[in-house]
Amino acid sequence: MVTDAAWQAKARNLLKGQLKGQGVGYRELVARLEKIGVKESEQNIANKLSRGGFSAVFLLQVLEAIGSKKISISED
Hints:
Layout: H1 4-22, H2 26-35, H3 42-51, H4 56-66
Helix pairs in contact: 1-3, 1-4, 2-4
């Protein structure tokens, strides 16, 4: 059985991979999120990604803000 910690790690790695693939750092992410009406600080983002325990809403907001059109949850 997969633990919650493993799911959190998968979520964290997925989002970090999307950010890296788009060439977006935390500072730029703050600005992009603000453009879509989401207020976050660099520290809050760092904390969320460090934990991997963020909401689906946050995940979707980030993906929208960085312009991700497709994601793969498979690690193959």
